[in-house]
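We close this part of the discussion by returning to an individual protein. The sequence in question and its structure tokens are set out directly beneath this paragraph:
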Amino acid sequence: MASIQIPPRSAWRAMLESAFYSNSVKKTTIPELYQLAVKQPEVIVTSHPFHKPEQFGLAGDTKILVSNDGGIVGRTARARRLVRQMGKEKGEYLRILSEAIYRLNKREGLWLEAIVGLHPNFMIKANLLSPVTDAKNMFDWGINFAPWVEPWTDMYRNSQRVDEPDILVLADPEWSDPRFADGLVIIDEDENCAALLGLRYFGERKKGTLTLAWTIGTRQNMVACHGGIKTVGEHPPIAVFGLSGSGKSSLTNSHDHAGTLKENEKVTVIHDDAFLIDLDADFTVALEPSLFDKTDAVKFNDPTIKYFYSAQNVGVTQLNGDRLIVAEDIRNENGRCIKSRDMFNHDNYCGRPGSVIWLQKDPSLPPITKVADIDLAVAMGASLSTMRARGVENVPPEELEKLVIEPFANPFRVHPLMVDCQQFRNLFKLGTDCYVMNTNAFGLPDKEINIPLQLSLSIMTAIIRRTIKWSEWSHFPGLLIPENGTEIFGEDYDKKYRPTDELNYLKFLRRRMQDRITYLSNKRDIESDMENLFIDPLIAARVAIDNILKPV
């Protein structure tokens, strides 16, 4: 599905595309960007070797570069403006964008090409325009996606064509406007283009590009997925969906599931962040060949650093003349790296997932439940409850302590929510099973019992092998709970994690159900972006608890 050249059909794309052809702009390459980044005043050249630099056309002695972004080291969702939602303000935003492009084109600019999508039937060309002073972020973008070099370009030329224009992204971190203290992101998803203004954080460039790729996918009858997917042995692929901090990467990238896998159960990771499921051709495709992961668990001189390409928002120290990375979020929260998937067995695509797991941080739910009803499966994904990971998003401190609902764990979605609901419903109708995994803690406030990663990994193994026996959860119709939890996961599993009939717990469970109902009802009533089909199963579950609580 390689993109083809299509003339602009909107003022937004016409403005952005024209900017690429200015006299001040020239096409660049990853080797040139590396040399420019080395000279950037704020960039640090470490002593760590760059992993397999030859694949990007870099010299064999290339070193990992570190860049730090200042006070904001996470995404700023409130900067985002969608063209389809602008209404009467559209004209003013067009003027702002036009002026921003004029200022950018007065400076030396660079144009870098890359490829999004790693399947011969899904490859979209992406283009990034930034000032020369932003070389490090451009370099990171180029190595995060498939670079415009062989063998990728040959695959792209031979891939299937689709009636979609190339992705265009313009980024100017030096832009400022007193009306937009948090920066400004303008997205026209219909025309596959975005402008990122006044934002330094690399993740804005990565996720902005993925946002457009996901939207393109939905127009091709694909399911847009912010999650991880892997295969274990000969079992069908298994996918997990969750925000940063939910355990998404830890569950996806584990090669042994805390020792619960057998030696012959080979793990193949497709990706831990972004993919698309083609409902027509039954394949799942990763969108990036690299990983953009947190470094909070990376120790000093950690052996995993040998797989790094680049790092952002981490510390550096000098020891015996060597400049070495200091991670573990010591310098600041949300330290990041771009690294190779060579650290584990990997592939670029696989079949349609046999299982989908919604990772939630909802203490009213036990560690694992199976969803027996297709519409409830969609509802639980559309009302995915979690807590924000510290430092990942640029939000006020008080927001970090609140449970939030993020449909399908994808805060980067710009197409209507109902598109995702219908696509996931179609996926489940094809036979994919659905589970809800709580990766946080279980129980009433102040009485919560922690759910360790080791337990979540062993549960994942049991799902893959289909060794869990399920029984109905009478207080939550449509959800099933393990009947043999103690037998599989240890003698204290039922004691710690089996839902009880205790009234305070049932009231707590009801409140969490109502939170989901309220959220989806507001989506229906205020935004006209939800259907009763996906609210009614939650209401039925709440009514079941109401019938128990009424006599009391």
Summary: Residues 223-290+348-502 form a domain with the Phosphoenolpyruvate Carboxykinase; domain 3 fold (CATH 3.90.228.20). The chain has 14 helices and 32 strands. The mean pLDDT is 94. The longest strand covers residues 109-119.
